[in-house]
């Protein structure tokens, strides 16, 4: 992913009340956590072996689906 894609996902997360944090250590290098801004807990990814980390594309997809779920309620 490019720097512009990373910035786009960071802005999308902020607009929904989340933060995108780089994990960047060990087996999670180049992975991100989505953190609830108000309560500071990491969002579960549902990915086996990477329970709380996302690739940038997975994070973007999660944020898009989160928006769809919120608008359908």
Commentary on this structure:
The protein has 73 residues and is α+β, with helices and mostly antiparallel strands. The longest helix is centred in the C-terminal third of the chain and has 17 residues, at 56-72. The model has no long low-confidence stretch (mean pLDDT 83). It has helices at 3-15, 56-72, and strands at 18-22, 32-36. 41% of the residues lie in helices and 14% in strands. It is built from two helices and two strands; from the N terminus they run αββα. The protein is globular and about 30 Å long. It has a two-stranded antiparallel ribbon. It has one domain (3-72).
Order of helices and strands: HEEH
The largest beta-sheet arranges its strands as 1-2
Q: What is the number of E strands? A: 2
Could you estimate the helical fraction of the residues in percent?
Answer: 40-55%
Sketch the major β-sheet. 2 strands, antiparallel
The number of helices is 2
- Rounded average pLDDT: 83
CA-based gyration radius = 12 Å
């Amino acid at each position: 992913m490019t720097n512009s894609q990373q910035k786009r996902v960071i802005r999308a997360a902020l607009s929904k009340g989340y933060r995108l944090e780089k994990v960047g250590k060990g087996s999670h290098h180049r992975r991100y956590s989505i953190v609830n801004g108000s309560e500071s807990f990491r969002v579960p990814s549902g990915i086996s072996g990477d329970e709380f980390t996302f690739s940038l594309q997975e994070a973007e997809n999660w944020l898009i689906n989160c928006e769809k779920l919120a608008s359908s309620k």
